Amino acid sequence: MRPRPRPLALPSRLRALRKFVAVAGDRLPAADLAPARAVLERAGQRLDMSREHTVVALAGATGSGKSSMFNALAGLELSDVGVRRPTTARTQACVWGPEGSGELLEWLRLPSWHARETVLDADEQAALRGLILLDLPDFDSTAAEHRAEAERLLDLVDLVVWVLDPQKYADNLVHERYLSRFRRHRDVTVVVLNKVDTLPPDGARACLEDLHGLLRSHSLGAVPVLGASTVTGEGVAELHTLIEKAVTGKRAATSRLGADVDTVAGRLSAFVGPPAAEITPHLVRGASAALAATAGVDAVAQAAGASYLKRGVSATGWPLTRWWGRLRRDPLKRLHLDPVARTSVPPPTPARRAAATLAVRDLADQASRGLPEPWPAAVRDAARADEGDLSDALDRAVGTTAITARNPRWWRFVGVLQWLLALCALAGALWLLVRLGLGALGIDLPLPKQGIVPVPTLLLGAGLLAGLLLTVVTRPLLRIGARRTERRATSALLTAVDLVTEEHVVAPVRAELSSYEDARRALESL
């Protein structure tokens, strides 16, 4: 993420960080979010406590002289100084103006502390009123509990003064393990090269220049660097002035927390990238088409067309042969297309099922292209989240979609006409049979004629021929209607499948991308 100015105040930045953690909490590893959660907890606690007090810690390695510096700043011999190492076994604390500091001292878990107020120098120390000065245990102590205590308080204090020894100022432990962690804490970090009295003037300048170079290599070039000596008093007044400014400004606590937010934001920036891409209609159509094939839309649409043709033949065919068509079951009924029960649409082939899975995965992959992990995996999981319900949803969509319409009115007209023609043929046939029977009895019944054709024969022949011709004429119309019915059924079923695709595949993916966007914007606002 590109660096940019931070126009937001600390409370707004903390709200943004809290939103990022809330959104990404179920997606990012807990270990990656632990520092952010710790900062939020620490900031909430610190901001609820005294804003009138500034906690300044002197940190350093064994023998750096930080205890002597602590005593020099306090103007009292409070911290033990000696040759036995480590000298500082527990944190020493000195408080200028203890009123209102109780909760803060309890939060720091300092069982004891010294009140720095005397009648003799009250005016002289007034500028430091509100200071809580700590002398931390050595961070390279041979005692593990001392190192742990120093680490704990380094996470809590408002400003850190690193007291370095001329012999150890370039120690890799100091720079790689500690100072490099504070590259975003430039405003609340001071570095003191102590014991410069043990160096010749040229050597002291060379050490300070080298120290500046080391700090620049860790992006701490803007950090104040002082040469000091508690023996000669060199640099002590300058350090005193820097601490005074921090105390009177009363911004060290918020600056420290802001730097903590910067640090976790820098780490979390690896989990966000460019804006999420739009889910294109092409991707949705591809996934929907694959799911439609899996749901058997083609088979159902063909059954709808076949059902139309069967019903049309039954309604417009020759009445005396309609019973034959009724022996064949309606194609739609064979599929048990019922809005409640499961349908009997043939199950998808393995190839179609695999194609549907690939189409859904492709939609997720295309939608999450360019996003850093774990978001692509989260988008794929979202696309497959409803996989168990997807089959039932498709089955319900197919079973409840209206794919049949009322029988056309012309079917009734043709059906009535077919009955009339059938009755004519039947009348002619019966007439001829009666005459044949009477002839067998010796009764000669003359037949009326229409021209040269007897009327009964005309009725029989015309009825049969006209019924056949009417069937020949209407059958292509029925096939045309069946194809239209199949197309309408296909369109209706595809619309139903589109809705299922949107609900069970696209909507979860969009929701996941929306969460990513929320997380990205929250982190960018930090």
Structure, explained:
This protein is an alpha/beta fold and about 525 residues long. Helices cover about 55% and strands about 5% of the residues. The chain is built from 18 helices and 9 strands. A hairpin with a 2-residue loop joins strand 8 and strand 9. Helix 1 runs antiparallel to helix 2.
Describe the structure in brief.
This protein has 18 helices and nine strands.
Low-confidence runs of at least 5 consecutive residues: 1-7, 338-343
Strand order of the largest sheet: 3-2-4-1-5-6-7
Q: Kindly, what is the distance between the CA atoms of the first and last residues, rounded to a whole number of angstroms? A: 11 Å
Structural class: alpha/beta
Count of helical segments?
Answer: 18
Largest sheet composition: 7 strands, mixed
Mean pLDDT: 85
Helix share bin: 55-70%
Shape descriptor:
rod-shaped
* Rg for CA atoms: 46 Å
Secondary structure tally: strands: 9
What sequence of helices (H) and strands (E) makes up the elements?
HHEHEHEEHEHEHEHHHHHHHHHHEEH
The percentage of residues in β strands lies in 5-15%
What labels describe this entry?
526 residues; 7-stranded mixed β-sheet; 57% helix; two-stranded antiparallel ribbon; rod-shaped; alpha/beta; 9 strands; single chain
Q: What is the topology?
A:
Elements: H1 10-24, H2 30-47, E1 54-60, H3 66-74, E2 92-95, H4 102-107, E3 114-115, E4 131-135, H5 144-154, E5 159-164, H6 172-178, E6 189-193, H7 201-217, E7 225-227, H8 236-249, H9 252-268, H10 281-295, H11 297-316, H12 322-326, H13 331-334, H14 350-367, H15 375-384, H16 387-400, H17 409-440, E8 449-450, E9 453-454, H18 455-524
Parallel strand pairs: 1-4, 1-5, 2-3, 5-6, 6-7
Antiparallel strand pairs: 2-4, 8-9
Helix pairs in contact: 1-2, 1-9, 1-18, 2-9, 10-14, 10-18, 11-18, 14-15, 14-18, 15-18, 16-18, 17-18
